[in-house]
Specification:
Strand content: under 5%
Helix content: over 70%
Shape: elongated
Number of strands: 0
CATH architecture: Up-down Bundle
Number of helices: 5
Distance between the termini: 46 Å
CATH topology: Ferritin
Largest sheet: none
Radius of gyration: 16 Å
Oligomer: single chain
Amino acid sequence: MNVIELLNEARSRELTVIIQYMAQHYRLESSGYGKLALKIKNIAIQEMKHAESLAERILFLGGVPTTKPDAPANQQQEISEMLQTDIGLEQQAIEMYNRAAQESGLQGDHVSATLFARLAEEEEDHLDEFQNAAAHLARLGAAYLATLTD
């Protein structure tokens, strides 16, 4: 896969998580879980910045940024399911970015490799947030959920 294809693959994944996280944000907000909704909204905004960084790099290299997500959003999930979905998405992103960084470097595009490495690091932060929330929920149940309300 050439670097532009790697960048577009990543952008497509970012578009998916933006849609997923914003759908979760809206649902959580309307259900009264404003604190968790805000955390997920802020991560979605960071993902939007990732998608923009990828698009800028694609354009610089002479490509056309994709506008298609790579999967539909999961709807109507319970909070524990949402967190497991998000953990999976972040784990996949980290794996993809590490692979893309390595491949870009092999193709001699160290700027794209650096971009992918930075994004992998930021996705690790998101993964940590979701894993912590899932662990608190598993350990404390409804008591933890009560702390997430407005």
